[in-house]
Amino acid sequence: MSENKVVNVLQFCHGYEMPFCDVAKQYASIFCEAAYHVVTVFLTGVKNSVVSAAVGGTVIFLENTSAQVRGLKLRQIMQLKRLHEQYQFIFAIAHRFKPLYIATHIKKLPVIGVHHAYGDYKRLRRRWYIYRHQKELFCLLGVSDAIRDDLRHCLPKIDKQRIQTFYNAVETDSLSTALLSKQAARKKLNLPDEAFVFANVGRLHPDKDQSTLIKAFSKVHLSLPNSVLVIVGTGRLEQQLKQEAIHLNIDKKVYFLGKIPQVARCFNAFDCFVLSSDHEPFGMVLLEAMIAGVPIICSNCGGAPEVVGETGELFDVGNAEHLADKMQKIYHLSCAEIQQLAGLMQARVQGNFSYQAMRKTFWQMPFIQKITG
Question: The pTM is what?
Answer without folding.
Answer: 0.93
